[in-house]
Design a protein that fits this description.
Blueprint (H helix, E strand, L loop, with lengths): L2 H31 L18 H6 L1 E2 L14 E6 L2 E6 L5 E6 L6
């Protein structure tokens, strides 16, 4: 292969490989921005187990500032898809779900 062609191919490959993480980051940021838009989840109800991925993408909520009840020890509130979800941190078992999108932030 000619040196100029080889350099061009390597450069194009390098740009392709370094650009992929940037696109992945943009998608992740878009997911975080959309976290406050309400999405109904039939599977989220008292006693159900919340999916680990849903819990992790949720934002921890200051229950006092949002006028929510204090969670028991081992539980916390998260805002996920426009819902406030109180669940056990260790197991993901849901204690309460409230629609958050209609409440002021």
């Amino acid at each position: 292969m000619k040196p100029i062609l080889r350099t061009a191919v390597i450069s194009a490959l390098a740009l392709t490989l370094t650009g992929a993480p940037m696109f992945a980051q943009d998608h992740h940021d878009a997911q975080q921005r959309d976290n406050h838009h309400y999405v109904h989840h039939n599977e989220w109800h008292k006693g159900a187990r919340m999916n680990h991925d849903d819990w992790n993408r949720g934002e921890r909520v200051d229950w006092h500032a949002r006028h929510l009840r204090q969670p028991p020890r081992g539980y916390e509130w998260r805002e996920v898809d426009g819902n406030y979800v109180m669940a056990a941190v260790a197991t993901g078992v849901i204690a309460s779900v409230i629609i958050a999108s209609s409440q002021p932030h």
